[in-house]
Design goal:
Layout: E1 2-10, H1 15-22, H2 27-35, E2 38-46, E3 51-58, H3 63-72, H4 74-83, E4 87-88, E5 100-101
Antiparallel strand pairs: 1-3, 1-4, 1-5, 2-3
Amino acid sequence: MKRMGFVLGIRPEGIEEYRRLHAAVWPEVLAKIADCNIRNYSIFLRQPENLLFAYFEYHGTDFAADSARMAADPATQRWWSINEPLQQPLETRAEGDWWAATEEVFHVD
């Protein structure tokens, strides 16, 4: 299992819609997340900076392949098309990334 964290901006005018959408995530999107070996997934909001922090635990063996399978899923594509206009990616993210990856510097169980 690998713990993973990502950061993304959110447009201030999109916060309430983002909250509403994530209060009732589509079952097919949740199923695809599980199918792609992602568990214990949370998204946190930090205001007033308007940052989202996503944390999850990856239980697979090939994150790139699982991420590609998720990206190819039609329901996930529709979900992303609704959510992406509400978001504001960080300028410092890696090329090709939407969410900016973070480095784990501490963990204790």
